Amino acid sequence: MTKKITILIDGNYCLYQTYFSYLKLKNKNGDSTGILYGCIKIFNKLIETFNPKNIVIIFDTPKTTFRHQLYNKYKTHRKPMPSNLKKQIRPLKKIIQSLGIPVINIKNVEADDIIGSLSKKFTKKKYYVFIYSADKDLTQLVNKKVSIIPGNFITEVLNEKHVYKKYGVHAKYIADFLGLTGDSSDNIPGVPGIGKKTAAVLLKNFSSISDIYKNINYVAYLPIRNIKNITSSLKKNKKKAFLSYRLTKIDQNIYIKNISSYLKKNNTDIPLLLKYFKYYQLNKYIKQIYENQFPILDKYHKKKNKNIQIKIVNTDVISKMINIIIQKKIFSIAIDFYINKEKKFFFYISISVTNYTTWWYIHDQKKNNKYILTPNIILKKLKFILENENYHKIGTNLKKIFHILKKFDITLTGIYFDTSIALYYYQLSNNIKKCKKKTLKKYINKKKFFDSKKIIFNVIQKSLNPIKKYFQNIKYLIINSKKPFKSIDIPLIQVLSNMEYTGVLIKKKILEKQKKKINNTSLKLEKKIYYITQEKFNINSPKQLQKILFKKYNFPYFKKTKNGNISTDETVLTELSKIHKLPKIILQYRILKKLKNTYLKKLIQSINTKTKRIHTTYHQNSTSTGRLSSSDPNLQNIPIKTKIGRKLRIAFVAKKKWLLLTADYSHIELRIMAHYSNDKNMIKDLSYTQDIHYNSAKHIFNINDNKIKSYHRNTAKIVNFSILYGISSFGLSRKLNIPIYEAREYIKNYFLTYKTIKEYIKYTYNFAKKKKYVKTLFGRKIYIPNINSKNKKLKNNAKRFCINVIIQNTASDIIKTSMIKLQHIFQKKYPNDVKIIMQIHDELIFEIKEEKISKFSYLIKYHMENSTKLIVPLYVSIKIGKNWKEMKSYILSVPK
């Protein structure tokens, strides 16, 4: 029976050992790579030599430990870590993670103590432990099941006999031995005058330091040269002796969380690993992986991945791979592509079709037999498959893959499953902490999946592809959100990919002109502020602003930040503006500054120099409400409330002989609430042609039509949306700046009219309380954290979230459904006449050929209003214009 071996690697020892051995190694970018090369070499050699079942790599903490507290001179003589060494630690840890090897470091705990604790735990589990290190402190851990592998690999493994032969004491007394002799490498003092031989003799006669001091009067009788002086030194330095012992003694009882996880091999991430190897030019290891001669993968992971084949895509095998894809019609794909500063590009593609087989192509500058294909050639051969929607593609972040392929004139279609989206909806509908894999599997086995389940699950679970690690999440999602995931979330990827690629045309000159104007206005406001205050200070600094407002001017303060400081936020400045002109000017200055830094700068920087367009990135997986968000730049928060903010939209234009069209869902959230609650008065008010907020104003203020003013309507609008999301009397009073009793009256009148809404809110809360989730119109289950919390604040927030998430998610799904339907029609019938270019909240923005505006206005309105059927009809308002700000309402006529 073969021994179960675990190797514990002293990570910091490896760092210094390889740093000096491969000091001159660098890649083309000038990054040092010696530690990366050397450490991997060590790991491979350890695996080849010892064939371990497990490996764990342990690193020291950069923080102080209990030893530093015991003795402030502990290790103080050591030189700081060289910067070139320090820079390589982070990429090394990422590479180790990609290799599937566990890494451990614990804050304020020394690596020696972690190694000691792990060795104790593992030997109890009947493992033989080998420690790779040259640290003599660790020899105290040696026993029948623990040995030391010396760093040079030349001498034999150090066992109990070797330790005794080398030090003259048994391994279990090494801490006492070093406590007496001291250890210059760690700046441990020991007892002056006691060397290795003397310490060995003392410990042969008295087994430990404690035993020596118990028998101190007998020490003088030992046959040791200069024994009187030694005895005297022992008596004088008793504290030093015990301190030194404590400093050298390894703590084997450190608490290590999830200890069993370090006995498991983690999943390897070969795409990421090869990416690092490529960047750091570790070509030897790339070659070894290709040739199945890389010990970490071939021996260490052998049992787990016994049937895995990595096939290099070249002229000999590409036809075979394509034939298999044509046969199966479903495959997973991963692609990466980037160009560095030297204009040399990195490219890889990975495709998995069948169990345990991954087809790899990595672009390499070398021109040898294995790399005769170029990215252009391989993609040209795959083009008909990638562009054919009948071939189903699975992957992670397929939208990114869509954009990479566009660079090679390929439009990816047939997007079938995206694990990043699956993971998001899995997290949204689950309390992940309580989800157990075993119970999940039992539940899954009882359910039926859609047709291609076997192929998908085999590809996901067993082959080296980009979705293996999300297996659990994917299975859960298929069970619980089959309909919206399959009909909305996945098709939407294609829509968003096309939107991002099309982008929105921007007139850069307009933005630059606005930026210049804002700069000039900001400077004038700055001068005004300094003139009023009669001193210069940093207006952008909350601390300095506090001094001016609350110390110099003694303005009243009524709000504090989370840290307990006096707040100077927008609400505070708005209130203070009522009593003095200074806060008003500061507020104007701050708005302009934000407009310039948050919006103008980023918009200008984001304009693509070739297309003259902004190509934002839309995210399906970043909000708790299911709403889309965007970044680089964020188009969802382009200001609309302020006049100067609205001016930004002038720069968003249509190309020549085209127009912009905006289609906006009117009062969609109120319509959704009317549908869910089936409130007759709300349905009635929304069915009429007049404004819902006008009708609500009559009920809230209890007045007739002829007495309603604009402020009544504006108040009713705020009340409508605030009450919808569970605002309190106090919250409404703050929002409307009215007394609490008045706010309470508004809420009371509101619910006297819309009684069923109150009942629906109560029902939803009770349902969530019982089930711990809510369900939307489209069948989404959304987990509600803290719904049964004992913390009142958390519980109230959860109650509000119940309604918010149902309405927001439903509104989001309605607009997503419309986008999918319209995109499908546009692509099939009118690919060159109309494009969806933006999605902002409840609004879709299109770019349309001018002569086709009538036709598409009708088509867009019709499909948006009929994509989802509610009790209350959906209403979409249409506006058109040459830019996003100057849009005019468009009266539709039914096209012939």
UniProtKB/TrEMBL annotation:
UniProt keyword annotation of DNA damage present: yes
Cross-referenced Pfam families: 5_3_exonuc (PF01367), 5_3_exonuc_N (PF02739), DNA_pol_A (PF00476)
Catalyzed reactions: DNA(n) + a 2'-deoxyribonucleoside 5'-triphosphate = DNA(n+1) + diphosphate
Superkingdom field: Bacteria
Domain DNA-directed DNA polymerase family A palm: 645-852
Family classification: Belongs to the DNA polymerase type-A family.
Assigned keywords, A-Z: DNA damage, DNA repair, DNA replication, DNA-binding, DNA-directed DNA polymerase, Exonuclease, Hydrolase, Nuclease, Nucleotidyltransferase, Transferase
Name assigned to this protein: DNA polymerase I
Domain 5'-3' exonuclease residues, every copy: 3-265
GO terms of molecular function: 5'-3' exonuclease activity; DNA binding; DNA-directed DNA polymerase activity
EC number: 2.7.7.7
Role, per record: In addition to polymerase activity, this DNA polymerase exhibits 5'-3' exonuclease activity. In addition to polymerase activity, this DNA polymerase exhibits 3'-5' and 5'-3' exonuclease activity. It is able to utilize nicked circular duplex DNA as a template and can unwind the parental DNA strand from its template.
UniProt-listed Gene3D superfamilies: 3.30.70.370, 5' to 3' exonuclease, C-terminal subdomain, 5'-nuclease, Ribonuclease H-like superfamily/Ribonuclease H, Taq DNA Polymerase, Chain T, domain 4
Oligomeric and partner information: Single-chain monomer with multiple functions.
Record-level GO BP terms: DNA-templated DNA replication; double-strand break repair
